[in-house]
Amino acid sequence: MATEPLGRMLIYIGVVTVLIGGFFILVAKVPWFGKLPGDFVWRREGLTIYVPVVTMIVVSLVLTLLLNIIWRR
């Protein structure tokens, strides 16, 4: 039974999880992240709906640029 590929996959998943956790720690320190103009917040009694439209557009653009730079052939 080949367990080496399973081991490699688990290591990759662990590394990606650590990177995502580090990203969330760093993002928490950025005061404007999630509070850009165009991020919608509706508050009612007992209910809050948050739709970060502009923040997700910015994240998408940054990730697209980074991944294109990294994986350019």
Strand order of the largest sheet: 1-2
Largest sheet: 2 strands, antiparallel
**What is the number of strand segments?**
2
Domains counted in the coordinates: how many? 2
Please state roughly what percent of the residues sit in beta strands, choosing from under 5%, 5-15%, 15-25%, 25-35%, 35-45% or over 45%.
15-25%
Tally the helices: what do you get?
Answer: 2
The value of Rg in angstroms is 18 Å
Task: State the share of residues found in helices, binned by percent.
Answer: 55-70%
Overall, the morphology is: elongated
Query: Termini distance?
Result: 35 Å
How would you state the average pLDDT, rounded?
Answer: 89
The class by helix and strand makeup works out as alpha+beta
Overview of this structure, please?
- With 73 residues, this protein is α+β, with helices and mostly antiparallel strands.
- It has two domains: 1-30; 32-73, no CATH class.
- Helices cover 59% and strands 16% of the residues.
- It has two helices and two strands; from the N terminus they run H-E-E-H.
